[in-house]
Write a structure and sequence with these properties.
Mean pLDDT: 76
Number of domains: 3
Oligomer: single chain
Structural class: alpha/beta
CATH topology of the largest domain: Rossmann fold
Helix content: 40-55%
CATH superfamily of the largest domain: P-loop containing nucleotide triphosphate hydrolases
Strand content: 5-15%
Number of strands: 8
Strand order of the largest sheet: 3-2-4-1-5-6-7-8
Number of helices: 23
Shape: flat
Radius of gyration: 26 Å
Distance between the termini: 58 Å
Low-confidence stretches: 358-362, 429-495
Length: 495
């Protein structure tokens, strides 16, 4: 979402941090470029004016002039002010003590309310709650059916007694239904329209009055741009929402809504939808988002994702195998499958400080994992546990079974062997066994240092070290680097 903005800001910072001293003129030039970058990202002009004004006030004072590295101090100021306009503090969902606790979703048609309802139900169910979805969008065709399908996928009940008419009685009766079912949380999906109008706002206000929600969440499309401010203000006046859900944050638009809505409304962004899948929905942390925008990564979220898919026992077992060189292709296949559970590959890479930029041109996608998996799946269990038995005839069979070439099979095996040797040598080095690099992501997974896994130290076997940053050579999915000749291998003479 913020790739273009990140690139522009990074270019500004690289010029500023490269200077030993910064004059007021240097600061003015940098701030002008930051202002243009934000406006191009479709951030509301009033937010941009306030943001740049705050930075300038701090940048021309002793905070920067007295710093050892003024350029880096500017970056620090921009980061702190970015956190400020994104809401400063994380705002968790407040369900209170009442049961059932009612959450009402409001927003324009097409903003992603119904999908957000399903994702929120998924998140609450993971946390041990028992949600009930309520279909109060009785205007959009098939909206009720869409919520029912989502309920089936999540495995939670859906209250949908009507497909048309007045949604207020439906919302009110849902409370009784929740008590009957023993549901602790009621999520009310309301209707939207293509633009703000009196009918929409009156209906939203009536539903809120009927169910008295503990949380009223305004769902807004992150790609809406400067119009986000007008829409957000209208809903704030009508229903006085308590928080914001940013939907479609994985889109390729400029994303100005994310940098405008919290500053303008004074209401925190509570959740962000980062993909199409139901579990691609996460709590919003202003400091972490600011770090992503400025190319600093988001290691904390990466750790949390790893902890969701790894148990402590799995982490310790895999670490032991890595360090003793007992790590097999079966184990590696399990690792790939766990990585996929953590979310889209590009999203994970973007959370690693400094690595996302290096791999920006690597054109990584899920198909690369699929290709490596297909090669391993084409092996027998014995071959996966003992790759050394793979002779020429077996490799041809594996290649044919996976739809890849024998060369790609060889490359996978070579990279895998290099990774095992590297891990064994690290394990034998004095004191390395206790290092965080080998303990996994904050103790949550056996993947080791994520920058080592995805960008260095051989990368993922058979994937060319996950791009040019690894320098591990071409893999089945990565292909050869462009404009570089590959030296021919000398054939060994048979004895």
């Amino acid at each position: 979402m913020f790739d273009a903005l990140s690139d522009r800001l990074e270019a500004v910072f690289s010029r500023l941090t490269g200077r030993g001293k910064l004059s007021e003129a240097d600061v003015d030039v940098g701030l002008r470029e930051i202002r243009l970058a934000l406006l191009e990202a479709d951030v509301h002009f009033k937010v941009v004016k306030t943001f740049v004004g705050r930075i300038r006030e701090r940048a021309v004072g002793t905070e920067v002039s007295g710093a050892l590295n003024p350029g880096q101090q500017i970056v620090k100021i921009v980061h702190s002010e970015l956190v400020r306009i994104l809401g400063e503090q994380s705002a968790p969902l407040d369900l209170g003590s009442r049961s059932p606790a009612v959450i009402m979703l409001a927003g324009l048609q097409g903003s992603g309310k119904t999908t957000a309802a399903g994702k929120l139900a998924t998140l609450l169910k993971k946390k041990g709650r028992s949600p009930l979805l309520v279909a109060c969008d009785l205007q959009r065709p098939a909206a009720v059916r869409q919520l029912q399908v989502l309920g089936e996928r999540v495995g939670v009940p859906v209250y949908a007694p009507a497909t048309e008419g007045d949604p207020v009685p439906v919302a009110r009766d849902a409370i009784t239904e929740a008590r009957r079912l023993g549901a602790g949380v009621v999520i009310v999906d309301t209707a939207g329209r293509t633009n703000v109008d009196d009918i929409l706002m009156r209906q939203a206000a009536d539903i809120k009055a009927a169910v008295e929600p503990v949380e009223t969440l305004f769902v807004i499309d992150a790609m809406i741009g400067q119009e986000a401010v007008t829409v957000a203000k209208a809903f704030q006046e009508a229903v006085d929402f308590t928080g914001v859900i940013l939907s479609k944050l994985d889109g390729d638009a400029r994303g100005g809504a994310a940098l405008s809505v919290a500053e303008v409304t004074g209401r925190p962004i509570k959740f962000a939808s980062i993909g199409e899948l139901l579990d691609e929905f996460e709590a919003f942390h202003p400091d972490r988002m600011a770090g992503r925008i400025l190319g600093m990564g988001d290691v904390l979220t990466l750790i949390e994702k790893a902890e969701e898919v790894y148990t402590t026992e799995q982490a310790e077992d895999m670490q032991s195998k890595l360090l003793s060189a007992e790590f097999t292709l079966e184990d590696f296949l399990a690792q790939l499958q766990q990585i996929r559970k953590m979310g889209p590959l590009q999203g994970l890479i973007g959370m690693i400080p400094g690595v996302g930029k290096q791999l920006a041109d690597a054109d990584l996608d899920e198909s690369q994992l699929t290709r490596v998996e297909s090669i391993i799946h084409s092996m027998t269990p014995h071959e996966r546990r003992h790759p050394s038995v793979l002779n020429g005839k077996r490799k041809k069979r594996v290649a044919a079974g996976s739809g890849r070439s024998a060369q790609e099979v060889n490359e996978l095996l070579r990279s895998f062997d290099e990774m095992r040797k590297m891990m064994k040598s690290l394990g034998g080095a004095g004191g390395m066994k206790g290092s965080k690099q080998l303990q996994g992501l904050g103790g949550g997974g056996p993947l080791g240092d994520p920058s080592e896994l995805l960008a260095g130290g051989g990368g993922l076997p058979g994937m060319g070290g996950m791009g040019a940053a690894a320098g591990a050579g071409p893999g089945p999915a990565g292909g050869r680097p462009r404009n570089k000749k590959v030296p021919k291998r000398k054939k060994k003479k048979r004895r």
